[in-house]
Amino acid sequence: MGRFADRVVVVTGGSRGMGRAMVRAFAAEGASVVIASRKIDACEELAAEVGDRHGVAALPVACNVSSWDDCDALVDAVDAAFGRADVLVNNAGLSPLYPALDEVSEGLFDKVLGVNLKGPFRLSAALGTRMVAAGGGAIVNISSIAAIRPGPSELPYAMAKAGLNTLTEGLAQAFGPTVRVNGVQAGPFRTDISTAWTPEVVGAFERSTALGRIGEPEEIVPAVLHLASDEASFTTGSVLRVDGGMP
């Protein structure tokens, strides 16, 4: 019996990168997992993997979290399959490149804020309210070091993640005392976003961390599982830095 036996865990952006590592870890700890991302094939593949390996229920759901309707459909799917959610991990993220600040289009701006902030707000509001009614739960928001160390090449993303930090603290007050809401502020990790980094960017990240390297997806998992578990029973409204020691 793992820490999350008999619990239902929803992970957005759950089919790849850090989200996939989280889903595998929650399933290994006995959780029923809901894997949500835009690409249903990848969700289905991971659901089959963790279901076979760990004998847990795994529900794949196609969801673009920037869409209010998709968020509501995800909540409905969770309700229909399990009747509740005990943990929500708002992990889906997006940070497209742009040539210059004055060339950021309205579409790009809206997409970045939609995925990184609007979606977490809607899902947290809907599922968090249900958690309160059910007597408890936990929400973990995956933020970024960009929220407090913004750069010109990722400014809309940094703005959205700063908003997510604010949302984390506000929801902790709104949903307490029964539902805890915390964040993990991630540094540079080797994920899909990192594939767009040039060797110069990678080198700069490696030089800027005390550990001298970029994180691997699995290295964010212990922090997420801790904040989602009863081990963090007196922790809410906190944003934990997992960034390799960035200044």
UniProtKB/TrEMBL annotation:
One Pfam family hit: adh_short_C2
Presence of the UniProt keyword Oxidoreductase in the record: yes
The enzyme's E.C. designation: 1.1.1.-
GO molecular function, one term: oxidoreductase activity
Source organism superkingdom: Bacteria
InterPro entries: KR_dom, NAD(P)-bd_dom_sf, Sc_DH/Rdtase_CS, SDR_fam
Keywords, alphabetical: Oxidoreductase
Domain Ketoreductase, chain residue ranges per copy: 7-192
Family the UniProt entry places it in: Belongs to the short-chain dehydrogenases/reductases (SDR) family.
Designated name of the protein: SDR family NAD(P)-dependent oxidoreductase
